[in-house]
Amino acid sequence: EAQVTQNPRYLITVTGKKLTVTCSQNMNHEYMSWYRQDPGLGLRQIYYSMNVEVTDKGDVPEGYKVSRKEKRNFPLILESPSPNQTSLYFCASSFTTGTGYTFGSGTRLTVV
Amino acid sequence: SQELEQSPQSLIVQEGKNLTINCTSSKTLYGLYWYKQKYGEGLIFLMMLQKGGEEKSHEKITAKLDEKKQQSSLHITASQPSHAGIYLCGADYTGNQFYFGTGTSLTVIP
C-alpha cells in the first residue's frame, strides 16, 4: 500500500531532550516536506526536500533540523525541544511539486 | 502574511443541505488543491484544479477554479455526516513551497 509512515504517533518529552520523528514513504517520491499544525495558524511548512541531499527551509524552520540521506526517509530532528514546539506534525511527499501530496497520519508532540 | 484565505472559517449544516467553501489567493494561481482532514488525522487529497474554469467532481463534492478571481470554490451537495472535517485548499506558487489555506471546519448535524 502506497503510504507515508510517521513515527511515533504520540510523544511527550521534556524541554531540552533531543528527539527525532521519522518519516518514510514507499512511493519513490522526490519531494518531501514537514509541516506543523497549530490552532488558528493552520499548516505551516518547516522544511522541505526536493531530492536526496537537497533540503531547504520553509516558513518556520527555527529549532528544527532535517536530513535526506535516502530518497524514502526524511526525519525531523529537534535538538533541544521547547514547549512552543508542542504541536501536531505532518510529513508529506509527492512525486514533484505541482502534484498532490500524500500525508502521514501525524505526530502529536507535547513538550513539557 | 496568508497567501490563501478560506471562508467561512467554520460551517454547521443540517444533513442533506448543500454548502460552499471558498478559497481566495493573494497571488496568481497556477494550480489549486483541495484536501480533507478528519480531526487530528492526516490530510486526504481530494482533487487538483489547474486550468481556469476547470471543474472536477468526486462523489458529491465539486470544485471549480476561477483564475480571473484567483479563487476556487468547493461545493458539497446533500451533505452527510461523513463529510464532516476540516477542508483545506493548497497552492504551489514558487515551485518549491506549498502553502495551505486557513481551513474550514465543517460539522454536519444528522
Describe the structure.
The complex is a heterodimer of chains A (112) and B (110). Chain A has 112 residues and is mainly β. Chain A is 0% helix and 51% strand. In chain A, the strands form 2 sheets. In chain A, strands 2, 4, 5, 6, 9, 10 and 11 form a 7-stranded mixed beta sheet that branches. Chain A has a 4-stranded antiparallel beta sheet with strand order 1-3-8-7, with no helix packed on it. The N and C termini of chain A lie far apart (36 Å). By secondary structure, chain B is mainly beta. Chain B is 0% helix and 56% strand. In chain B, the strands form 2 sheets. In chain B, strands 2, 4, 5, 9, 10 and 11 form a 6-stranded mixed beta sheet that branches. Chain B has a 5-stranded antiparallel beta sheet with strand order 1-3-8-7-6, with no helix packed on it.
> Roughly how much helix do the residues of chain A carry, as a percent range?
under 10%
Uncertain regions spanning at least 5 consecutive residues of chain B: none
Structural class of chain A: mainly beta
Unreliable runs of chain A: none
Features:
heterodimer, A: 112 residues, mainly beta, B: 110 residues, five-stranded antiparallel beta sheet
